[in-house]
Amino acid sequence: MFTLIDPELATGQARDLLLDTQKQLGRTPNLYRAMANSPKALAGYLAFRGALQGGALDSKMNERIALLTAQLNACDYCVAAHSFRGQKIGLSADDLNNTRLGISEDPKINAALAFVTALVKGQGHVADEVRDALFAQGWTEAQIGEIVAHVALNVFSNYFKQIAEPALDFPVPADLVV
C-alpha cells in the first residue's frame, strides 16, 4: 500500500495539487493522496481529467464510461467512487447497475457502452461493426475520440489503484462485486 500524502504536510507540487483538489472536490480522495507520491503522475492525471471536462460528452456519459471501465478492470475503489459520483449527478440505481453490466435501454448509450467494453477487453482493438454501430447511433468523431480518451484516463486510475492499494474512502455499493 502506498503512503497516503497528507495535503497539509505535503510540500511543493504535491501540496499544491492536493490542496487544489481539496478545494475543487471538497475533499482529497485517497487515490489522489497515493498518486501524490509521484507529483508528475498526479499532475498529468489531473491535467488530462481537466482537459476532458466540458467536452463533447455530458457528465453522465463521462461517469458511465468511468464506471464501466472500472468494472471491466476489477477496480473496486473506482467502481465505488464512480457509483457515488454517478448517483450525485442524477444516474439512477438502474442506470448504474446497467452501466456496470455494459448495457442501456437507450440504444445510443448502449452502443457507446458496447464500444467501451470492446475497447477495454480488446486492449484498444475494436471490431469494425462495434465502431460502426456508434456512427449508426449518431455519435460523432469528436465524441468517439473523447470516449477513447475517457477510457484511457480511467484505465490509468484503475491501474494506479491496483498498484497503490489506497483504502476505500467512498460508500461501497451494496452489490459491489468486481
Describe the structure in your own words:
- This protein has helices spanning 12-25, 30-35, 39-52, 59-72, 76-88, 93-101, 107-121, 128-136, 141-164.
- The protein starts with 11 loop residues before the first helix and ends in a 14-residue tail after the last helix.
- The model has no long low-confidence stretch (mean pLDDT 96).
- It is globular, with a radius of gyration of 16 Å.
- The protein folds into 2 domains: 12-52, no CATH class; 59-164, AhpD-like, CATH 1.20.1290.10.
- Helix 4 (59-72) packs across helix 9.
- It has 178 residues and is mainly α.
- It contains 9 helices and no strands.
- 35% of the residues are buried.
- The longest helix has 24 residues, at 141-164.
Quick tags:
single chain; 178 residues; mainly alpha; AhpD-like; 2 domains; 66% helix; 0% strand; globular
Blueprint of the fold:
Layout: H1 12-25, H2 30-35, H3 39-52, H4 59-72, H5 76-88, H6 93-101, H7 107-121, H8 128-136, H9 141-164
Helix pairs in contact: 3-9, 4-5, 4-6, 4-7, 4-9, 7-8, 7-9
